[in-house]
# Entry
Amino acid sequence: MNTRMADNVREALEQMIVTGEFADGERLDEIRLAERFHVSRTPLREAFQMLAASGLVELVPRRGAFVRHPAFHEMIEMFEVMAELEAVCGRLAARRVTPEVLEQVRATVIACEAAVEAGDSDGYYRENEHFHQLIYAASGNDFLAQESQRLHKRLQPFRRMQLRVRGRMIQSLTEHRQILTALETGDSDTAEAVLRDHVAVQGGKFNDLMASYKQSNLRANSQPMAMRG
Amino acid sequence: MNTRMADNVREALEQMIVTGEFADGERLDEIRLAERFHVSRTPLREAFQMLAASGLVELVPRRGAFVRHPAFHEMIEMFEVMAELEAVCGRLAARRVTPEVLEQVRATVIACEAAVEAGDSDGYYRENEHFHQLIYAASGNDFLAQESQRLHKRLQPFRRMQLRVRGRMIQSLTEHRQILTALETGDSDTAEAVLRDHVAVQGGKFNDLMASYKQSNLRANSQPMAMRG
DNA sequence: GTCAAACGTTTTGTATACAAGAATTCGATT
DNA sequence: AATCGAATTCTTGTATACAAAACGTTTGAC
# Structure
């Protein structure tokens, strides 16, 4: 819990938006939310600014803040960019990774294996997150790592949907192993290629994602509600 | 001029920071700036939020807003990411570009040629911006285009430094021609490779950039001034 | 002379007040 | 009955007021 109310409100709203508590295009009522969080409108508006910066809401002047769930095609676009960012991270990491970080990656892959054997999908989710954080850091480019993390975080709810799909965990683990080997041997081409495919939405994954997207309460609509006819 | 004061203040501050009007680590005094812009602290603080989101200032709780000029190595990192983003844009664009956009790219290259012949470096700068915007759009991925544009804008001051270097305009134009050809022939590998090298800071460009960086009044320091000993 | 505690000052973070721009309601007119 | 428009109500954007945290300075003890 931060001492700044604005940060707490941002976090709370972020969670609420990401978990689909608001419909797409819904207006965030300043007064009602201020009452709900027991704060004044000032920190709430600061939170709106931050949410707008990360693309979760759209601020329309003199109209208000509208939640902005990505349409399906936008989500696909984001995954395409994510795949490229991870591919670059992998390519650079294969050349730049330090023995210490490599050891951590190894440990994470082992933890992933354990999670798969135990059928612990939550545990796998955690270790998977860790794995990707390590790849970002291993790129040796802090700015790249930061940007990758930012987008990774934004795609979190959709990734969560994905993990439910049968057999996905095993496939993911196999790819993690391949990536680890590529890093160990300094094979940047393989690291790049496997990571791109690992993240990319294609083939069966596309259909799985589409199905879970439709089931979710995140509705696709690029127009803010204020603009609707 | 926007009707929202906060947006105007953001834009003004952005320009001031980018042009080096503030030293790195300098604290932005809310009261003094509010007086200077003839606004209250409220819209000023909103502007701070936005600037923090785009990385131009660092918001330290209970301490204030500190301007954050990238250190040299951070700038290099950003260029590395920019090169990769443009490379991806190029690769996708070679496959997806529409005849209409391709025609616009052609026109822009012609305008670049005219600017070089006329020795009009401002004109070249403008057309060069246009060229890259078109490449982003041609990628067919709006999210990618948006992110590329965001980073492109952030690197603007450094790119401006670069254009002063002798012979850079001619080299840039040659590369533009190569990229255009790659797009016309759908050669995604070439488009990717040329664009990466076009943007990448390497060889002579590295030294040129370092020299102009040192000359600029943008000082490298990753610590906020409040934290200094 | 140095260090630290206490006091006063400055500055941030939040609440509230107020003005101006949207949205809505309701009545008048065709 | 539908539509246009004026009046009313809400909501946003900004200013100001106030509380609490950080900062600086002075004073006192060793």
